[in-house]
Each structure stands twice: as structure tokens, then as C-alpha cells.
Amino acid sequence: MAGKSKKVIVVGVDDGAESLHSLEWALDHIVMPMNDQHYRLVMIHVKVPALYVLRLASPGIAGGDAITKVETELKKCAAVVSKSVAEACEKRSFKDFEMEVAEGDPREVLCEAVVRHKAQMLVVGSHGYGTFKRVILGSVSDYCAHHADCSVLIVKKEKSHHQHSD
Questions:
Q1: How far apart are CA 99 and CA 13, in angstroms?
Q2: Comparing C-alpha atoms, which of 19, 155, 25 is closest to residue 81?
Q3: At what angle do helices 140-147 and 106-117 cross, to 10 degrees?
Q4: Digitized pLDDT (tens) for each residue of the chain, 166 residues in all
Q5: Which InterPro entries match (predicted)?
Q6: In this structure, are residues 45 and 81 in contact, taking their beta carbons and an 8 Å threshold?
């Protein structure tokens, strides 16, 4: 089957357990049961800019050495995420996927990726933030549900009876 006739699913991935769970859920419940030859996955990992991280951590610090250290850590994180994505796909013998690392606001980057790849679906995980954290951090899944140019699947990780939000 030609690559262009495959349905494209964009999956937002980060270093959180919810993200990997949403990828695995999509593979196990959509891609593999519906015949993996019909799908191409594009995983998008969005790094926040190093300068933004530094400004949040220590306002006023923007030295070159500090930026270099933060950028190095962000690259390491992206490499770990890429490895986890590859392992999840390889475990299921799914080969038609690509990994992109972008920088910016995850909400906007994911919605732009949907348009760029002509995706039929966007899959994102839900961090399960409480109201306070959602107001401060913004909800990527909520934003994408309202702004993406395709269907959006928000995968929630099962909560144990002892977990609390916030």
C-alpha cells in the first residue's frame, strides 16, 4: 500500500507516563486491530525553549552557559522520549512511524503538525491536572480538542484508587 493512501495519526509525546500510555493505547486499540498497514504515525515531542525554562526557574538568569546546560538536558529528554516511542512501536512490530522534535508551545505545535501532515486524528494524553494546575499550565488536550483540524482522542491513564489530582 502506498504511503500517501495511509491514514495519518499524529501523537503528542513527552516524557510523562501519560504520553507513553496514550501512544500504546492508540497502537493497541486503533492501529493494530484495524490493520497497521493502513496507518502512519507521526509522533511529535515539543521542547520548551531553554530561555523560557530559565526564566521560570530563575528570573533574570539568561547566561550563555546556563542556556547551554538547559538545552543539553532538553536534548537528552527528547532522546529518551524518542527511544521510548521506538520501543513501543517495535514491541508491536509497527514500522511506519516517524518522530519529530519541535520547539514552542505544545498546543500550537501539535495543531500545526495536524495540518502539515494532513492527519485524520490527533492523539494526546491527559495529565489529569486539577483545576489550579490546568489554569497555570494550560491544558494541551483541551486546546487541541477545540482547535485541531481533525478528530482528537484524549487518552486518560487509569487512576489507582489512591491517586489524587493536583
A1: 9
A2: 19
A3: 40
A4: 444 589 999 999 998 888 899 999 999 999 988 877 899 999 999 987 665 555 555 555 555 677 788 788 888 989 999 999 999 999 999 999 999 999 888 899 999 999 999 999 999 988 665 554 445 456 888 899 999 999 999 998 776 655 544 4
A5: Rossmann-like_a/b/a_fold, Universal_stress_UspA, UspA
A6: yes
